[in-house]
Amino acid sequence: MTDTRRRVKVYTLNEDRQWDDRGTGHVSSCYVERLKGMSLLVRAESDGSLLLESKINPNTAYQKQQDTLIVWSEAENYDLALSFQEKAGCDEIWEKICQVQGKDPSVDITQDLVDESEEERFDDMSSPGLELPSCELSRLEEIAELVASSLPSPLRREKLALALENEGYIKKLLEIFHVCEDLENIEGLHHLYEIIKGIFLLNRTALFEVMFSEECIMDVIGCLEYDPSLSQSRKHREFLTKTAKFKEVIPISDPELKQKIHQTYRVQYIQDMVLPTPSVFEENMLSTLHSFIFFNKVEIVGMLQEDEKFLTDLFAQLTDEATDEEKRQELVNFLKEFCAFSQTLQPQNRDAFFKTLSNMGILPALEVILGMDDAQVRSAATDIFSYLVEYNPSMVREFVMQEAQQNDDKTEKTEFLGFFYKHCMHVLTAPLLANTTEDKPSKDDFQTAQLLALILELLTFCVEHHTYHIKNYIINKDILRRVLVLMASKHAFLALCALRFKRKIIGLKDEFYNRYIMKSFLFEPVVKAFLNNGSRYNLMNSAIIEMFEFIRVEDIKSLTAHVIENYWKALEDVDYVQTFKGLKLRFEQQRERQDNPKLDSMRSILRNHRYRRDARTLEDEEEMWFNTDEDDMEDGEAVVPPSDKTKNDEDIMDPISKFMERKKLKESEEKEVLLKTNLSGRQSPSFKLSFSSGTKSNLTSQSSASNLPGSPGSPGSPGSPGSPGSVSKSTSQMAAITTKGGLVGLVDYPDDDEEDDEDEDKEETLPLSKKAKLESS
């Protein structure tokens, strides 16, 4: 697997006629029993997973292009390509393919016999090679008919392409084109249009190389100006030579590079503007044209990267104060397109590309550009910066810290996170805090919702990777309560983002977070959203149930008790899933063990040592972190107050009663919310948010009436009707803000993360003053 000859990148052609990178791995050919034949296998170099398993079909047309590419159609409108790191590897696999198909490896395309009847196949195979009419003006109609009749048959297309290559026929046709234009022979020009259009559909790389050569390409475009279906000819050549001007922001000294840029632009123009729309032709009949453009761009990036003088001049002018604004904008736009082209490179080449840019000083240059007043220039610079962050975030962090302070006493990670949370986090969360001052979002337009969704994505990432810093920030700034206000948004994707943020916190099973959630009654907005979602069987419904199911399965005792003690009356009628009844059972089991300790005495004895070990408070380092005054924070004082252990029971309101008092004060007319569901024809449960005054329970906790957060009000349902369309939309929005699996981020690991090692049945270790105790009347 370490043989670089077999190292390849797998591409597939998407619906937009663009090549998608499916990963890098090593290719091999072997017999696969399941497919009953020799197959191409590509296994990822990262984890050995299977990127490609494709049987070498005797009737599939494989094409070898530019010495390092093999392209073929796996099925209708599904094209694949293998881009080899080395020519030798491409030749080896090509020989294997030709061996299976019984072809000579010297050919660049294997024959495809699909869609031909046995009779046609026999006739074509028994006949000699295709003989073309002599290339004369008087025989243009005959030539056009021959090309049109050959297109339906793959074998005839192959014979026609070979005949056109061997006889230099295309150049002869273009000579006749000049004659027809000089004579204003419109009929002959119409025939030439049909002939050239048909040659494009032969999908042959060797023919494209002739047609797109410097001496032929403008004449080819000229032939395509005379479409018989149009009353007047197009002026494509006039546009390309007079209107479209090639502007060199930095002079290019390499003539081959300049010619390649011209060629790529013109071929792209042919594809986008000259040829008929894709609906007229089969997509797979133009796949080679798409490949030609794609790999031309790869070659351009490589040639520019190797031109040291070009890059040196580029960055020198970018950072030169004497450069005028218009020129600088052109330079930035060029650099942006340059970076976009680099995404087509294989990993090792992309690494070299970005290292070259780094050595040239791209980050200091971007720092200058981002400080400019021109919005367009800043926008382009931001796009370039995003490429750099995606490629190597460590490089960007190192640069930021060097700019912040010239001090190497601490580690890069600790230094950066300290700087980020002190100077940057308040800027990131400012739109969130400004929009969540009330019980529902202050602004709920689509643009604001998109911005807040992106902020929540970043905060969710921080929760996962920045243990101490983000925990301190969330608890002291009461961030989770503000985030949950967004569950009242009319945009389902934003409400789901808020829920996902809380789910990530709960998933950590961190008792600091759990105490914060219980103290502020932060399940209240979630329960209200669940009830308001009502009978709609959508992503919101499933996501909320999954969160409670996680609490049940993981047996998070503190949260289980909190949910049942405070929200059971609202959830007890939900019986189309067993989640809430399962939570109640967990709670009752906990109470039984507490009331009858002898039943569990043996387990306690067996793990007595571990119990003593886990009964301690968090490590000194973490405890000091959360006890430290927030001098570095912008707001200073913590939002969540410390517990007051001296309060009398009379001063502590029952959370359920307080919830209902706030509900009655705000919405006196809503004494009972009764929602009924019909799911897949089932009798749905009733959800009731009305509590009997006779149900009394006193909870001894840290929270007093003055410490409870404000009611989240009556959020509108963020969900949407449970139609397939709405579910799909929610799902797509959810996918758009999901952190990618391979993301390399800022990760700080605590010295001893005890939560990951805890047994699911370990005893509750919180002090009694911090536990909620239920006293039944």
Automatic annotation (TrEMBL):
Occurrences of domain PP4R3 EVH1-like (ranges): 5-101
InterPro entries xref list: ARM-like (IPR011989), ARM-type_fold (IPR016024), EVH1_PP4R3 (IPR055236), P4R3-like_central_dom (IPR006887), PH-like_dom_sf (IPR011993), PP4R3-like (IPR051137)
Top-level division of the source organism's lineage: Eukaryota
Sequence ranges of Low complexity compositional bias: 723-732
GO process annotations (BP): DNA damage response
Pfam families assigned to the protein according to its UniProt record, in alphabetical order: EVH1_PP4R3 (PF22972), PP4R3 (PF04802)
Chain spans, region Disordered: 627-655, 682-777
Xref: SUPFAM superfamilies: ARM repeat (SSF48371), PH domain-like (SSF50729)
Record-annotated Serine/threonine-protein phosphatase 4 regulatory subunit 3-like central domain positions: 142-410
GO cellular component, one term: protein phosphatase 4 complex
Family: Belongs to the SMEK family.
Name used for this protein in its record: SMEK homolog 1
Gene responsible for this protein: PPP4R3A
